[in-house]
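Much of our argument rests on the idea that a fold can be written as discrete symbols. The record that follows shows the chain in one-letter code together with its fold in token form.
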Amino acid sequence: MSKTLTRAELSNAVYREIGLSLSESTNLVDAVLEEISSALAEGNSVKLSSFGTFKLRRKKERIG
């Protein structure tokens, strides 16, 4: 089973790898995720080199 990566784990990784304070690392991660979300909401796709491309897809409703 795959593990989910959380914002806190991303912030800790930035803190360890780059050396920003934990608060600055959290702010940086939040800002990047907000930019990605905003671009997707505007209908744009987002490409992160060597990682992946993200875009919104329209799917039919499912019965829950």
